[in-house]
């Protein structure tokens, strides 16, 4: 009887050990989510990621399931995930519901454009991966950087221009990630009197009178180089255009409101001040 009990105990321990060692098969949706997974050291469990997940560079070796707002059920299920960790901005929501309905856990991470949301994102991902211990120093570093951001507002007007092939050039108004980042940097959004992203117009740009133009590397490629930026309607007639005050950002770092965003906001403030005072 004692031998039987001993054998049962050893078998139970073996099963428990194997289960604990079994890796998850995770699909990550959202660049901010994926960067947190890497920061927590769980990248070996990734079997899929969306197109916005391109940092760190090693993630580009992971299977791409497509754009986060054009999810496909079959593409996700083909990777046999045991868990999907996704930004709550991902679409269509019906695809994620289908994933849940077949028994695969779906963990939703806040997509808010807020510095306060970043620690919440880390906490959500860490809890899902059982890596709360690894999250602690990451959280402390994020909190420290956020606390170090300048609190004094500057009267420096910035506008963010988004340009992608196939669509008109857009400028960022209120209720956008760009607007939130500009304000968190203690700067003024020159297009703050409009809502969301609006088509760029000569009249609107001239009226905004930005001191600094902000855009990203993809936009620069789309318009054919930085020199062409100053040829866009109205830009040359603004203070930014006359002085060629341009800041090219890492879009995910600044606008993704992930773990790199506090440092990116600090850098935006520093660069804007240098340009406006130069």
Automatic annotation (TrEMBL):
* InterPro entries to which the protein is assigned, alphabetical: ABC_Transporter_SBP, ABC_transptr_periplasmic_BD
What name does UniProt use for this protein? Periplasmic binding protein
Keywords from the named record: Signal
For this protein, the record's SUPFAM superfamilies field holds: Helical backbone' metal receptor
| Pfam families reported in the protein's UniProt record | Peripla_BP_2
Q: Where are the transmembrane segments?
A: none
The record places domain Fe/B12 periplasmic-binding at 25-278
Against PROSITE patterns, the record matches this protein to: FE_B12_PBP
Instruction: Give the source species.
Output: Commensalibacter intestini A911
Region forming the signal peptide: 1-22
């Amino acid at each position: 009887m004692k031998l039987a009990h001993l054998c049962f105990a050893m078998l139970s321990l073996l099963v428990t050990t194997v289960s604990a060692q079994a890796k998850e098969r995770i699909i990550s949706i959202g660049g901010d989510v994926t960067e947190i997974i890497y920061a927590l050291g769980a990248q070996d469990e990734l079997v899929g990621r969306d197109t916005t997940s391109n940092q760190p560079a090693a993630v580009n070796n992971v299977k791409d399931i497509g754009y986060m707002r054009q999810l496909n059920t079959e593409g996700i299920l083909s990777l046999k995930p045991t868990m999907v960790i996704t930004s709550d901005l991902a679409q269509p929501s019906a695809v994620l519901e289908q994933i849940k309905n077949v028994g695969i856990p779906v963990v939703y991470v806040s997509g808010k454009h807020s510095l306060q949301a970043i620690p919440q994102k880390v906490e959500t991902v860490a809890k899902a991966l059982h890596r709360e211990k690894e999250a602690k120093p990451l959280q402390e570093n994020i909190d420290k950087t956020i606390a170090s951001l300048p609190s004094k507002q500057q009267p420096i007007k910035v506008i963010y221009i988004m340009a992608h092939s196939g669509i008109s050039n857009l400028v960022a108004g209120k209720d956008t990630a760009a607007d939130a980042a500009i304000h968190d940097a203690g700067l003024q959004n020159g297009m703050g009197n409009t809502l969301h992203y609006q088509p760029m117009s000569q009249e609107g740009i001239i009226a905004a009178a930005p001191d600094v133009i902000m855009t990203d590397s993809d936009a620069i490629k789309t318009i054919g180089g930085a020199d062409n930026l100053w040829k866009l309607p109205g830009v040359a007639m603004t203070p930014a255009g006359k002085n060629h005050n341009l800041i090219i950002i890492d879009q995910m770092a600044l606008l993704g409101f992930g773990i790199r965003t506090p440092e990116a906001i600090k850098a935006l403030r520093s660069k804007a001040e240098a340009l406006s005072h130069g």
